[in-house]
Structure formats: C-alpha cells, structure tokens
Specification:
This protein has 601 residues and is of the alpha/beta class. It has a 21-stranded parallel β-sheet that branches. The chain has a 10-stranded parallel β-sheet with strand order 3-7-11-15-19-23-27-29-31-34, with no helix packed on it. It has a 7-stranded parallel β-sheet with strand order 1-4-8-12-16-20-24, with no helix packed on it. Strand 43 (514-519) and strand 44 (528-533) form a beta hairpin. Helix 4 packs antiparallel against helix 5 (443-459).
C-alpha cells in the first residue's frame, strides 16, 4: 500500500472547492508561450508527473501498491475511463466486489469520459470540489461514510446518485448540473447543502431521506425538480429556491416545523404530509394541494417581492422572467382537511374545493381572489337576455354551467379529464365558505357564497318541485334577499300597476256625498237624522287625469307602508288596495333586507 500524506490543513477536511492548484503539479504539456501551467494534476508521491502522465511501468507499480481502503489524492488529474477503471480496480474489495476508498481527494479533477463510481465505498472524506465531469457520472449505491464535498463541481452530462448513502455532511454548494441529476432513494444522514447550486435540466430527489437539515438556499432549477416521497425529518427551511418548471413534493413528508420558500411556475403538493407547523411562501406558482395532510397550522401565502437572503441580497429569478406576475394560484384543495389551513393573498379563481373537509374553518387573509360570473348581457335563443350580477363564484360552478345545453357564453369549461360535479356537491361547499366568511365578520363576502348556495339548491335534483318554485320566486323577486335593485324594481313596477289599476277601475267618478234624512214631529221635540253615503260609482269617461293620479298615488304610497288611505274606492279598488297592501310592503322589506346584507359588517 502506498502511504499518502494528507494535504496541510485537511486533517479536518474542508468541504469547499479547492482554489487554483496550490500544489506541486505535473508539467506535462507545459508551453512557456501558450500554457505555462500545463497539466494541473498533483504529482504522484515519489514521481514528477500526475497519475495520467506517469510512465506505464511507474503507473502499474503505483496501482499495484494500492489496496482496498487506501488514501488517494489525485487533485487536478485528468481521467479517462480506462484510467479511472484501473484506479478503482486496484481499490476493489474482494469481499464485496466493489471499490473501497479511504481518504479520497479528486478536487479539480477532470473526468473526460464516463465516470463510474457505482457502489463505491468512501471510508473517509471524499472531495470532488471543482471537479468536472464531461460525460455521465454515476455514484449509484455509493456510500460516503465521512464528509463529502462536491462544491462547485460541474456535471456536463447526467449525474446519478440514486441509492447513495451520505453518512457525513454533503456539500453541493454552487455545483452545476447541466444535463440532469438523479438522487432517487438516496439517504442523507447528516447536513446536506445544495446552496446556490444550478440544475439546468430536470432533477430528481425521489424517495430521498434527509435525516437532518438540508440547505437549498438560492438553488436554481432551470427545468423541473422532483422531491416525490422525500422525507425531511428535521429540515427547518427549504429554499428559497427558484424553478423555471415544476417543483414536485408528491408524497413528501415533513417531520418538523419548516418554512418553504419557492418561486416556481408550479408546485405539486399532492398527498404531501406536514407533521408539524409550517409556512409556505410562494411566488409565481400554481399550487396543487390535493389530498395533502396538515396535522398542525399551515400558512400558505404569496410573497409580493423577490426573496431576500440573510446577507441582504435578493434571490435572482432569471428563469421566471417570462412570467407576467408573481401571483400565487391554488389549483386544488380537494381532500384536504382545512381546519388548520390559512391562505393569504392567493388567487382561488381556479381552485377546486369539492371534497375539502372542514372548509368552514378555512381562514382567508389579505386579498384572496375568487372567480366571477360572466360579464355583460348575453342573449339566449336570440330573444331572452341573460345578465349575471357580479358575485364571487367557484370555478366548479363555471364547469357545471358550461355543460348545460343553453349555457350562456363566458362560463369556463372544465379541462379534459376533470371530475364533473353538480349542484348537489356544490351547495355544501358554498355553505361552508359562507360560514367561513361570516366567522371572519366579512358579511358582504359571505353574501356572495349564500347566493351561490341558494342557486345550487334551486338547481339541485333532490329539491321538491314546490320548494324549487318558492326558491325561484325568491330569486326572481330579490335575488335571495341580496339584490336590492331587483326588489326595488319589482316594487316600482307593482306601485305603477296599482296606480294604473286604481285610476282605471278603483277610484269613483266623484267622491260620494253624505245625505241627511229625518222626520220633524208636528209637536216639536227631539229630531233624529240618519246620515248615509251613496255607493261609489264605477268610473266612466276620462279616467287618467292628474287629479285621479294624485289620489291613486296617495293610496299606493299608503299601501307600501301598510296603511289605509282615507279615500273612497270602488269595490274593485278596495280589492286592488288590499292586494297592494299585502305585496308591496313585502317587496319593500326585501329591498331593505338586501341593502342590509350588502353593507353590514
């Protein structure tokens, strides 16, 4: 075995990349005019060249002197596939059939061919800081028993760390993965740091286990990244990270309190489990929380400004420069228990709520936006105008209405493959959201969801015909007690009709005069008079005059406030007045009730 003297200052190995070669390096290929440095590879002990440029006999002798678990130092050395294979074969453990390395340093090494470290066992520190992997590099099933450093390493092609085990600290700070990276089912038993790393293609961390903290501060993913089924046992903070594509946390588990700071186009949190309190701060993202589990309070909020690092610098968002705004949109809360959920300043216009549990306990903070009804007036069958009053709606109502045969344009159709829900499923959703707004003392907002609830009840198949007729009348007269202008319009129409009917049929031609009749006894004494009034005569001739209008208006206004005017009426007029005294105060009450519902706090 060849003894290796560890570089000075490396008894406690640094995980940062090595700077420009401070070591005595190989002079192979040096040209004072063009390349005075030549090969940057460190000299093999006892020789004047690096491992790549040793004479064949010297290289064979060096390799023959190695044994499994030996310490090696090949900083800056250029490796071809045969050279790396020969080195690892010399370190192969006969008991396992796989290479076993001691203290191994490959800082600034250049792997110019396929780098195969699959199933290798690193017994001590493994240093690949600033190394360059020109082709594929695999560390599949490798075991790093000590600290490992890949800081500032460059992977030009695919990097595979599937099933790798990192027992010590793992540093990938400022590493660059240009093609793709796979960390599937890897285990990080100590701190893992990917700070400021760049992933230019898709990256996969599926089924990885982070047993301690993990750092993704200022990491950039230029495509998508998957954390499917990842276990974060003690991670207190994830991010801030930037992803130009999708960040998937499908089935991921967070075991302790955590803050997630993510700027991405889409965040998948389907079946993600938070076992402790958590805060999710987002930018640009559309988020899917279908069947996510929140065991403790969870806050999801939109961050209006770029994330700021502890040093005060903003996190760059170049991969997201094409995104129009930083708004955060919730795509789905289906299957979620919302009892511990707080949403702040998010867009819920496309959110699917059906199937959410304890939705009435959902807390909405700040400006949370919902979908609205189509604008302007639409014509059905070329003659029937349809105008929808502005109100908050669920996108699932849009989907249902768009499926109806006579749907007005403007209702948003459901995307392909979306589950179809109807009024029976939507009515309890509206009811729960109404209660959530009422509990928050946001009565005008609650009114919109009450309107949606009543609309769904009116269209539901389980409502009896007589109840549906009553609901339809309630809707037509006052918009379920929420549309004051509708009740006032009906009141004005009823009053106008009452006035016209009174002028035409209810007021007599002339007010009846009292007539006194009696008998005077010849002997004098007490005189008795009987006073009577002629019956009103039905009007004839000109009925619509100013005087008759004034009388009809007086009767009508008194009817609105449930009073009787001192006006003589025909028999028909009496019934007209009785009808108006019954209907018009109800319409006035509906109007007052609607105004109250829209302005109370």
């Amino acid at each position: 075995m060849v003894a290796l003297n560890r570089p000075s200052g490396m008894s406690q190995p640094s995980l940062e990349p090595a700077p420009a070669p401070p070591w005595q390096h190989c002079q192979h290929g040096a040209d004072p005019a063009s390349d005075p440095v030549g090969c940057p590879g460190i000299l093999v002990s006892g020789h004047t060249a690096c491992l790549a440029h040793l004479a064949n006999s010297d290289r064979d002798a060096y390799l023959a002197g190695l044994s499994p678990g030996a310490d090696i130092d090949h900083r800056g050395t250029p490796f071809t596939r045969p050279l790396l294979a020969a080195l690892l074969n010399a370190l192969r453990d006969p008991a396992t059939g796989y290479p076993r390395l001691g203290y191994a340093v490959f800082a600034s090494a250049a792997f110019k061919d396929y780098a195969d470290f699959a199933s290798a066992a690193f017994e001590d520190y493994a240093g690949f800081g600033s190394a360059t992997f020109t082709y594929d590099a695999t560390f599949e099933s490798a075991t790093f028993k000590g600290d490992s450093g890949f800081a500032s390493a460059t992977f030009e092609n695919y990097a595979e760390f599937r099933l790798a085990t990192f027992k010590g600290e793992a540093r990938f700070t400022r590493a660059t993965f240009k093609s793709g990276a796979g960390f599937g089912s890897a285990t990080f038993e100590d701190y893992a740091d990917f700070g400021s790393a760049t992933f230019k293609n898709n990256a996969g961390f599926g089924s990885v286990t982070f047993e301690r903290n993990v750092g993704f501060e200022s990491v950039t993913f230029e495509r998508s990244v998957g954390f499917e089924s990842v276990t974060f046992e003690r991670a207190s903070r994830l991010g801030p990270l930037v992803c130009a594509g999708q960040v998937s946390l499908f089935g991921a588990v967070f075991g302790g309190p955590v803050s997630l700071w993510v700027a991405a186009r889409r965040l998948e949190c389907r079946r993600t489990r938070w076992s402790s309190t958590a805060e999710v701060r987002l930018r640009h993202a559309t988020v899917d929380f279908t069947h996510a589990v929140f065991e403790y309070p969870l806050t999801i909020g939109a961050e209006p400004d770029p994330f700021v690092l502890p040093n005060g610098h903003q996190v760059p968002e170049e991969p997201l420069t094409s995104t129009s705004d930083a708004a955060v949109r919730i795509a789905s809360l289906r299957g979620v228990d919302a009892a511990h959920l707080v949403l702040a300043d998010v867009d819920l216009s496309e959110c699917l709520f059906t199937g959410t549990v304890h939705l009435d306990q959902l807390r909405l903070e700040g400006a949370c936006l919902f979908n609205t009804v189509p604008r302007s007036v639409h014509w059905r069958r070329c003659w029937h105008p349809a105008r929808f009053t502005r109100r908050r709606t669920l996108v699932e109502e849009h989907h249902w209405r768009a499926r109806q045969p006579a749907a007005a344009p403007g209702w948003q159709a459901a995307p392909s493959g979306a589950a179809h829900v109807g009024p029976l499923q939507l009515a309890p959703v509206y009811r729960a959201l109404r209660k959530a707004f009422e509990d928050a003392k946001h009565e005008p907002g609650a009114a919109d969801f009450y309107y949606g609830e009543m609309e769904m009840r009116r269209h539901a198949d389980d409502i009896p015909r007589n109840e549906r007729t009553l609901l339809t009348a309630y809707w037509a007269l006052s918009g379920y007690g929420l549309r004051a202008y509708r009740a006032l319009s009906w009141l004005a129409a009823a009053m106008l009709l009452t006035i016209l009917l009174l002028m035409g049929f209810g007021l007599p031609n002339n007010d009846p005069k009292q007539v006194a009749t009696g008998t005077v006894p010849s002997g004098g004494g007490k005189v008795t008079f009987e006073i009577s009034k002629d019956d009103p005569h039905h009007p004839t001739g000109q009925r619509f005059t100013g005087e008759r209008f004034e009388k009809a208006l007086n009767v009508t206004l008194n009817s609105v406030v449930f009073r009787s005017a001192d006006q003589d009426l025909t028999t028909t007029g009496t019934y007209i007045e009785m009808t108006s005294r019954l209907t018009e105060p109800v319409l006035l009450g509906l109007a007052v009730f609607a105004v109250r519902n829209r302005v109370k706090r």
